[in-house]
Amino acid sequence: MSVLKETRFIMDKYxxxxxxxxxxxxLIDDETVxxxxxxxxxxxxxxxxxxxxxxxxxxxELLERAGQVTCIELDKRMIEILQDRFSxxxxxxxxxxxxxxxxxxxxxxxxxxxxxKIVANLPYYITTPIIMKLLEERLEIQTITVMIQKEVADxxxxxxxxxxxxxxxxxxxxxxxxxxxxxxPNTAFIPEPKVNSSVIQLQILKEPKVKVEDEAKLxxxxxxxxxxxxxxxxxxxxxxxxxxxxxxxxxALTNLNIxxxxxxxxxxxxxxxxxxxxx
Length: 279
Prior knowledge:
With 279 residues, the chain is of the alpha/beta class. The protein folds into two domains: 3-204, Rossmann fold; 215-278, Orthogonal Bundle (Helicase, Ruva Protein, domain 3). Helices cover 42% and strands 19% of the residues. It has twelve helices and nine strands. It has a seven-stranded mixed beta sheet, sandwiched between helices. It is elongated and about 65 Å long. The N and C termini lie far apart (60 Å).
C-alpha cells in the first residue's frame, strides 16, 4: 500500500485530521519517506529517537532498520494510532510528551546500542527551539536528520558570514557540519503547506569548530548582535548597554581588523569568537 493510501486509511479509521495549532502536515510521498530513512543511514546498531512521528509514516521504515526506535509525540490523538500500528515490534518505544521537556540524555544512557541518531519531521513554528535543545545539551548523538521549512533550512546550512545568516546559523556551525540532503515539495503533504520543505542533516562534531573559554558569552554576543540585525554591529552592541561604550566597541573591532561599518551577518564564526574574548 502506498503511503498516500495508507495515510488516508488511517485518517478515516481514526477520524483524524491535521491539527493546525501543532503545525501538522502528514507526509504522503513514498520517495521522500525512503529518501529520509536512506540518508539517515540507519542500522541495527542504532538507537533512533524520532521526534513527532505523527501517524507513523517514517516510524514504519525506521523500525525495520534500527535496533531501537523511541518516538516522542506530543499529540495524544496519535498515541492510540502509533500503539495500534507498532505494538508488535519489540524495538518500539513511545513517549507522549513535549520533546522540550523530555530527558533525552536518560533515554540515550539506558540504550545499549552503539550509536544514537535523531530523525524528525518538525513543525515549522518550533524548529529552532528543538534543534537548539539537541545541540546545547551535548547529547551523545551522531547525526540529526530533520525535515523543516525550506527558508529555515537555507538559513541553517549557509556558511556564517555569507547568505541569509541568522543567529542560529552560528550555533549550527559551532556544534555540527550541516548539509542539505533532500528537497521536498509542498505536494508531498496533506494538507499542503504553503511552502516547500528541505531535509537537512547535521553531523555532530566531537569538538566545536572554534575554541572559546565561555560559550554562554559567545552566544549571548551573537544573539545580541542579531536582535538589531539592520544596524551595524557597533550600533547594535552599543544600544544593548552590555558591552561597554560605542567607543570601546569600536576599539575592540579595530584591534581585530574588523570593519566598523560591518553588519552582524557578515562576521565569520571565528570573528565572533575573538570578539567575545575581547569584550
